[in-house]
Amino acid sequence: MDTLIPNNSVHITGGKDLEIITGIPYKIINDGHYLDNGDADYGSYVTLCGHNYDRNDSKYSRQIWYIEESANLGEYRISSNGKYLDTFGGEHEFECRMNYESHCDSPYYSRQLWPNEGWYSRQLWKFEIPDYQLKAEIENFKYDEKINDLESYVTKVTSSIFTSRNQSLGSNKLGITLSEKMQNISSWSFNKSKEIVFLDKLNVDIKAEYAGVKGNLPEIIKWDNKTISLETSKKVKLDETNVSGKYSVEIQKKEDVEVKIIWYKVNLDVQFTAIAKIMGYSDRLRKNGSVAKMEQVDVNATLSFLRNSGFEGTIIGTEGKNVLVEITGNVNIQGALKYEIEKSSVVIPSLITAVDDHIVDDHVLV
């Protein structure tokens, strides 16, 4: 399979770069009309079409154009369906047509070169990217310092699991089995992030380092449903705090006994920053003129896609074909840090029994 054409910025006279990238598809538009290759047969005339064909239309490829670098700096070739925009040596008011590729040693090579020097009015063309995808992997979470001091934010919650009253004159010994659970949950939210609108457009995988009540556990979150927030759509149940065991409880005469679990619970929002690795995908032109469908693009094209998507966040660098951006948000931590089992008892002040209309304290008349 032939090598993919590099995705470089188009260079214009004067040393500037345009927001146009080589080797990815564009629609070329003037005043709402789309440049059409006329089926790209040899010699077919290039026309303007008032209809914008979408990807599912059989005529879609007629409006797809690629910019390719030439051997001359600042001059480019424009191709569509494997044929090249060619002047055929024409001059003023001559119509351009589609032609086979001319190599740099051909006397007709210059007929397929288009310098970028700036045009006006009827010669101004808009380059529109018709179809691309962005994917993101979010990782390297860094949490606020509160994450290391969760015990300062606990609330004691009491759960009564066993009560008994001994109304007899002797003691009783009872066995009880305790089995209680407290779910520990963390949920990540980008609702407070200025990038939330942008993230809604992405396919997002989140490799979150679990910040919670039972230590650090890696967890991959796939965020598919963008109509609701990540916080609502993905509650990550990572662990449980379990209380279990058998206990013997002796209840003295005239005694109330209650066995309780005291949970040390936390429910806390912790701010974080994270790194999103953004990857761009689009059709790409190969050096042999064929098109590779939805291949990952080079970093210049990904940067162009980000700007085209309206991204206004912080770009912190690049890594190979990927763009690294900073993402902000918060993680909500809920669960039990620890627990205690507590037995409490109260001696009943008086045991009152009614027999034959006589009120007797502490014993029954016979």
Automatic annotation (TrEMBL):
Origin superkingdom: Eukaryota
Entry-linked Gene3D superfamilies: Proaerolysin, chain A, domain 3
Name assigned to this protein: 10731_t:CDS:1
